[in-house]
């Protein structure tokens, strides 16, 4: 499966961004999916995950600010990010949950203070 993340950019602290992820396979609808991020010099960390049925979990650092969602009919995964903070700056990746070893191309989110 190929996963393509998009929607990143430069935003001021307190701003919002919406990330999108396109999956290439129709079996997307039965897979749990996730958003991870990787800040410079750090490992990938889980941001949020969502089951095929729509149940979500969030890292404590983003809970209440970020919302993960999916549209199975279109093989799309989303991450709405509000009240962004400089510490949210990272490359964001979409992946299965648990994640596959292959990360694909992420999208860079830069939050300025």
Structural class: mainly beta
Spatial separation of the terminal alpha carbons: 37 Å
Q: What general outline do the C-alpha atoms trace?
A: globular
Can you give the mean pLDDT? 94
H/I helix tally: 0
Name the beta content range: over 45%
Q: Radius of gyration from the CA trace?
A: 13 Å
The H/E string reads EEEEEEEEEE
Oligomeric status: single chain
Q: What share of the residues lie within helices? A: under 10%
Strand element count? 10
Sheet having the most strands: 6 strands, mixed
Strands of the widest sheet, in order across it, are: 2-10-9-4-5-6
Low-confidence stretches: none
Strand and helix map with partners:
Blueprint: E1 3-6, E2 9-12, E3 17-23, E4 33-38, E5 45-50, E6 56-58, E7 66-71, E8 76-81, E9 90-96, E10 107-112
Tell me briefly what this model is.
The chain is mainly beta. It has no helices and 10 strands.
Give your account of this protein's structure.
The chain is mainly beta. It contains no helices and 10 strands. The strands form 2 sheets. A 6-stranded mixed beta sheet has the order 2-10-9-4-5-6, with no helix packed on it. A hairpin with a 4-residue loop joins strand 7 and strand 8.
